[in-house]
Amino acid sequence: MSDQVYYKVLGADGLCCHGGAGRWSIDGSWMPAVYGGLAPCVRGYHLCLGEDLVEWLGPVIWTAEGRGKSFRSEQYHIFQEARVLRTLEGWNSSVARAFSIACAERAVPVLEAVMPGDRRVMEALAVARACIQDEKAWSDAQAVAAEVWNVSRLVDGAARDAAIAVYGTVVWQNGGMAAWAAAGSARSALAAAAWERSMAESKEKGVHPRDAERGANGASNAVMKAERIWQTEQLFALIR
C-alpha cells in the first residue's frame, strides 16, 4: 500500500466520469481485486497524484489509496486494488466554475489577438461568473455557448483551443466537468500559441524547418508544463 496521497475523480454516487461504466464503492470498502495484466484504460483501478489532478477533474474529488500490483502511467497510477476514502469538501460546483473561468481567462488573449473587438467570448465568461452565484443563470449559458462555438469555427490552431476553453466554462452545467474542459483546452491553447510563435520567429530568422520544428516543440512543451503547474497551484488554493 502506498503512503502517497492519491485522488479519484468520480460522478455522483461513485459513477465513473472519465471512461468506463462502473460504479465505485463510496463506503470506504475496497473494490474487487483485478487479476491479469494491468493496462491503461483497460484493466485496473486508475488513481492520480495531486500533480496530475488537473487532467482528471470532474464532479466529485475523492482521496483514495491503492494496493497490490501497480504501475505508473503518464498521468495516473494503476492498481490491482483501490478504494476511495473521503471527498474533498472544498471542491464544489461553484469553486470548480471559478477555476474554469480562471483557466479560460489565461487563454483569452490568444483568441483576442486573432479576433480583436469580438465580445462574444467575454460575454460568455460573464455568464459563467453569474452561474457561480445563481444556478438559474444556466439557462442563459446555452445561448452564449452556441455563440462561442460559432467563434471557434472561425479560427484554428491556438485560437480555436482558446475559444473552446471558454466554451467549456458554459457548456457543462456541472462545474466539475466545466473545470476539466476549460483547463485542458486552456493548456492546449497556450502551448499551441507558443509553438506558433516559435515557428514564426524561426521563419523570420531563416532557421531550417527541421530545427524550427524541434525548437517549437520544446517551447510548446515548456509552456504546457508551466501551465499545468499554475493550474495545480490555483486548484489547490481554491480548494483550501
Q: What does this entry look like structurally?
A:
With 240 residues, the chain is an alpha+beta fold. The chain has two domains: 6-87, no CATH class; 93-239, no CATH class. The chain is built from six helices and four strands. It has a four-stranded antiparallel beta barrel. β3 (60-72) and β4 form a beta hairpin. The two termini are 27 Å apart. The model has no long low-confidence stretch (mean pLDDT 93).
Tell me the Rg in angstroms: 20 Å
Strand content: 5-15%
The total tally of domains equals: 2
Distance between the termini: 27 Å
Low-confidence stretches: none
> What's the number of helices?
6
Largest sheet: 4 strands, antiparallel, barrel
Helix-strand makeup class: alpha+beta
Which strand order spans the largest sheet, edge to edge or round the barrel? 1-2-4-3
- The amount of helix comes to 40-55%
Instruction: Please tally the β strands and state the result.
Output: 4
- Average pLDDT confidence is 93
Give helix and strand order, one letter per element, not per position: EEEEHHHHHH
Shape: globular
Note the topology.
Elements: E1 6-10, E2 45-49, E3 60-72, E4 77-87, H1 93-112, H2 120-133, H3 138-152, H4 157-171, H5 175-205, H6 209-239
Antiparallel strand pairs: 1-2, 1-3, 2-4, 3-4
